[in-house]
């Protein structure tokens, strides 16, 4: 791969047999993320053998598929061939600074495809995007998935057993407050939300983080988009792509000294 800036092609996830590959990449990339560690104090890291956590992650991805957009790249093996490692990239690996190697652990059978296989290797990159209100097309498959999830959440709810409920509530409240702040500065009818962007930990030092960000900015058609950066060292990475810090958010559970801080960043789009 030459030094020319490039985009990484991403594809929408609409079939359930791709969900395990996406879930594995999410787990490996975020197991040591500061936000996840704060939400799950004293809990074991996200791991394949924890069936309840994997059921929750699988369900979470389904919910994003029903309300937003899930994208994936080619698998890790294909990405490694197409984008060979050549020294240290100037672009940091987003969301994967603390590297976790879970590649030898097995996925529970309940999360595999109907043929009880993992349907290929992990996704090389994963993105969760939420378009502005009213942009989602409610196709028949999307409506069916939403109805299925409503029934599953009622009959068989899924939970991340390691997460502390109070801290999850604090996070959601802070997110809503940040969104309201941004809506005073940007029209809500064209403001996108980038919830997750990550590159697989095994694909470091290839410039893929930048390639994924270029694809995202093209995908939102020059409209405003915001994200929540959980690592201070990645703030500069996003600033290089035109994002600005809109707010610094601190979160702490009452009576606890464990403080977490993240940065709400927004790309104003093209004027």
Automatic annotation (TrEMBL):
Note the InterPro entries from the entry: Acyl_CoA_acyltransferase, GNAT_dom, Trichothecene_AcTrans
Pfam families with a match to the protein in the record: Acetyltransf_1
Name by which UniProt lists this protein: N-acetyltransferase domain-containing protein
User: Organism source for this protein?
Assistant: Penicillium brevicompactum
For this protein, the parts annotated as crossing the membrane are none
Q: Which domain of life is it from?
A: Eukaryota
- Gene Ontology molecular function, alphabetical: acyltransferase activity, transferring groups other than amino-acyl groups
Q: Which residues form the N-acetyltransferase domain?
A: 186-270
């Amino acid at each position: 791969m030459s030094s020319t800036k490039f985009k990484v092609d991403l594809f929408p996830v609409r079939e359930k047999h791709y969900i395990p590959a996406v879930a594995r990449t999410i787990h490996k990339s975020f197991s040591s993320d500061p936000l996840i560690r704060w939400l799950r104090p004293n809990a074991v890291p996200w791991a394949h053998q924890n069936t309840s956590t994997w059921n929750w992650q699988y369900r979470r991805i389904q919910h994003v598929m029903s309300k937003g957009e899930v994208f994936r790249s080619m698998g890790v093996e294909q990405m490694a061939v197409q984008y060979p490692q050549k020294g240290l990239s100037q672009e940091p690996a987003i969301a994967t600074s603390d590297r976790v190697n879970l590649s030898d652990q097995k996925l529970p059978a309940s999360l595999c495809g109907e043929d009880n296989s993992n349907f290929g290797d992990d996704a090389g990159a994963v993105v969760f995007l939420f378009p502005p209100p009213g942009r989602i097309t409610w196709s028949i498959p999307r409506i069916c998935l939403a109805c299925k999830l409503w029934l599953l959440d009622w009959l068989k709810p899924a939970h991340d057993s390691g997460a502390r409920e109070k801290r999850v509530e604090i996070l959601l409240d802070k997110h809503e407050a940040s969104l309201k702040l941004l809506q005073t500065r940007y029209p809500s009818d064209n403001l996108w939300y980038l919830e997750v962007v990550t590159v697989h930990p095994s694909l470091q030092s290839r410039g893929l983080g930048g390639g994924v960000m270029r694809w995202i900015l093209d995908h939102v058609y020059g409209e405003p988009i915001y994200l929540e950066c959980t690592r201070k060292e990645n703030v500069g990475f996003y600033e290089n792509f035109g994002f600005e810090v809109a707010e610094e958010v601190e979160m702490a559970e009452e009576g606890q000294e464990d403080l977490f801080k993240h940065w709400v960043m927004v790309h104003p789009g093209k004027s």
